[in-house]
Amino acid sequence: MIISASRRCDIPRFHFPWFLNRLDAGFVETVNPYNHTQIRRVSLLPGDAELFVFWTRDPGAILLHEETLAKRGCRYYVMTTLTGYPKILEPRGPRQEAVLRAMENLAARLGPDRLIWRYDPVFLSGGTDEEFHLCNFRTLSRSLEGLVRRVIISLFDAYRGPERRLAALERQGRLKRLPVTDAEGRLLPGPWDLLSGLARIAREAGMTIQTCAEPEDRIPPGIVRGACIDGELIEKLWGIKTGGKDKNQRSHCRCASSVDIGAYGPCPAGCVYCYARRPGPPFSPSAASGDPPGCGTAY
After folding, report:
1. Around 220, how many Cα atoms within 13 Å sit in the side-chain half-sphere?
2. Distance CA 149, CA 203 (A)
3. What is the rounded distance in angstroms from the CA atom of residue 249 to the CA atom of residue 260?
4. Cα–Cα distance, 79 to 70 (Å, whole number)
5. Kind of pairing, strands 76-81 and 150-155?
6. Within a domain: residue 167?
7. Is 33 helix (H, G, I), strand (E, B) or coil?
8. What is the full per-residue pLDDT of the chain (299 aa) written as tens digits?
9. Residue 14 lies in a domain
10. What is d(CA 270, CA 94) in angstroms, rounded to the nearest whole number?
11. Number of domains in the chain
């Protein structure tokens, strides 16, 4: 079983002590986000949890506890979202310098195959237009050259929660979104050229660039359709066979089957575009039970 930690919330950044406590307990309870009466107990015992996939904006806690994870025999890889967006979009993001330093140290310990960069989502607005992304992505890719072999991108998808938050900013005159597709859903020339430019920059930095859950007609040459929870990578590194596509994900998602732990809910980071931010009571890290944390995801 692959444990995803998590699409639902940034466990490494905000709740890693909770995660280590759940490892000690040997299980975690997860709530069905569409039916809160359905609670599933998920084993975290070494014989059951074959691999952990961490999603985060700040891998510092993973670096801090790397020896602990190694002693426990935990197999894992780390996906770190690093976008460098302005505070209007990411009001309480971690310090970029600290994230880069943590990624450098993790790469030295884990190797570049187990550290993956997410430049995700690609959000187009007046303050983050095509020129911004090309310059920003080039700067970040140079900082990460040799530390990672893969970068994952996807275009912003307007889920209901982010749509409300972004519309409010637009009404206030604080944000202006730029169009990405035409009336038929086809990628406009500007975004198409932007993605092609990102592909060139990634190639220059020695990175494979892949999409996350994008249809083929939105993927320019030089970008591959990929999976975040990548069955091929997992089998290559650990010999674990993952058993096919995860049927619970979006139609264009190519991720292998996994179990997400954690919960959707409020998030200290407050990223405006995040699909996982939802109203609800905050999680108490001191909770001794298997109650899942509520915080926004790393997207």
Report:
1. 18
2. 10
3. 11
4. 18
5. unpaired
6. yes
7. coil
8. 999 999 999 999 999 999 999 999 999 999 998 898 999 999 999 999 999 999 999 999 999 999 999 999 999 999 999 999 999 999 999 999 999 999 999 999 999 999 999 999 999 999 999 999 999 999 999 999 999 999 999 999 989 999 999 999 999 999 999 999 999 999 999 999 999 999 999 999 999 999 999 999 999 999 999 999 999 999 999 999 998 899 989 989 999 999 999 999 989 999 999 999 887 654 444 443 454 444 433 33
9. yes
10. 11
11. 1
Token pair 């990102």 is found at 198
Domain-located, residue 184: yes
End-to-end CA distance of the chain: 22
User: Alpha-carbon distance 131 to 38, whole Å?
Assistant: 46
Q: Does 273 reside within a domain?
A: no
Which are the contacts of 105, defined by CB distance < 8 A and separation ≥ 6?
A: 63
User: Is 0.85 surpassed by the pTM of this model?
Assistant: yes
Amino acid at 43: S
What is the domain range of residue 44? 2-260
